[in-house]
Design goal:
This protein is α/β, with parallel strands linked by helices. The protein has 11 helices and 9 strands. It has one domain: TIM Barrel, CATH 3.20.20. Helix content is about 40%, strand content about 15%. The strands form 2 sheets. It has a 6-stranded parallel beta sheet with strand order 3-5-6-7-8-9. A 3-stranded mixed beta sheet has the order 1-2-4. The longest helix has 22 residues, at about 50-70. The two termini are about 25 Å apart.
Length: about 350
């Protein structure tokens, strides 16, 4: 089977038919003010968890509807039910306790997980939220979890003898969450690994092994999201990760990865980030179109998905919607030129 058709055939075998240059999002969207206020009220003991849950479902429903209106091809649940991507999963696995606030970047903080015992999966973490989001639309919704390498790197380890041991223990635990998503019907699963380039020597040493534990022999299309890393130190070695699609930040770094692709061809599907989520500027469709065309100079169109650089949770609702609309408008124009619109 030709390389260019392999991944598209896999999606079709899973019952998913997508247009050329599928549009999607990375994961998170800005939480509406009523949900942020409800979270504050819950911490103050002024509302019950069930009330917060109702508002999280309301916000999820709103974002699913909005993504459909904008015209995205593959949707995300928006992560209305979670805060930090590592802490959320740590709170639902045994073997962790949660520290006080530490700085993530800029003026953003999170409660850093601490591994204090054997890490074990206690039951589904995201499955009910995926089911809920998928029930609201006929378009495919990604299942999304934080990967074992990032969970390890963003946690204090006070239990395992090495980073490798901690990472592989997390992979074995999180593998069960992936299996639960597959059983529930998720066919596109994104494993977020933004830390994967933190220590390039660990990619072949054990990060690739951890991803293999997560994806081996499972009937799903796997995406890994990697953002804001020193890719020049892990490319092309990162192509050894056993996934179908790499979701990469491209625009914040001025498409510098394209030059690497010229030297070492990209051999997997790619979700090509065409808007900078750390900028308040809403890129017009013309700018996004230019970035897509730059991608197509070095990548086969059958392998390219189009999305933002990263999650949009730090933007305002208006900024997030504007960026997504530009993505869809620019993609549809190029798609039409290719006879797939």
């Amino acid at each position: 089977m030709g390389v260019k058709l392999m991944s598209r055939t896999k999606l079709e075998q899973l019952g998913i038919r997508l247009p050329l240059l599928p549009t999607t999002a990375v994961g998170s969207y800005p939480k509406p003010p009523y949900l942020l206020e409800a979270r504050r009220r819950l911490r103050a003991g002024r509302i019950e968890p069930a009330e917060l849950r109702e508002l999280e479902e309301r916000a999820t429903r709103e974002w699913i509807q909005l993504q459909e209106q904008i015209g995205l091809d593959v949707l995300v649940d928006g992560e209305m039910y979670r805060g930090d991507m590592a802490t959320y999963f740590a709170e639902h696995l045994s073997g962790f306790k949660i520290s006080g606030l530490v700085r993530s970047y800029g003026n953003r903080y999170y409660r850093k997980p601490i591994i204090v015992g054997e890490v074990e999966w206690q039951g589904p973490i995201t499955v009910e939220w995926w089911r809920f989001a998928q029930s609201l639309t006929e378009r495919p919704v990604k299942g999304m979890i934080t990967g074992p390498y990032t969970m390890m790197d963003w946690s204090f380890n006070e239990y395992y003898p090495s980073r490798r041991d901690a990472c592989l223990a997390l992979a074995r635990a999180l593998r069960k969450e992936v299996e639960a998503l597959v059983r529930a019907g998720a066919k596109i699963i994104q494993i977020d690994e933004p830390a994967i380039s933190a220590r390039p020597e660990e990619l072949p040493a054990f990060a690739t092994e951890a991803m293999r534990i997560m994806t081996k022999n499972l009937n799903a299309y796997f995406i890994t999201h990697i953002c804001y890393g020193a890719f020049e130190f892990v490319y092309p070695q990162m192509l050894e990760l056993p996934v179908d699609n790499f979701d990469l930040e491209m625009s914040n770094s001025q498409l510098d990865l394209v030059e690497l692709f010229k030297e070492h061809p990209f051999t997997r599907d790619i979700s090509f980030g065409v808007v900078d989520v750390h900028s308040h500027v809403v890129e017009p469709p013309e700018v996004v179109e230019k970035r897509i065309r730059a991608a197509l100079q070095v990548l086969r169109p059958e392998r390219v998905w189009v999305d933002p650089d990263c999650g949009l949770k730090t933007r305002t609702r208006e900024e997030a919607v504007g960026k997504l609309r530009s993505i869809v408008e620019a993609t549809r124009k190029i798609r039409k030129e290719m006879g797939d619109g």
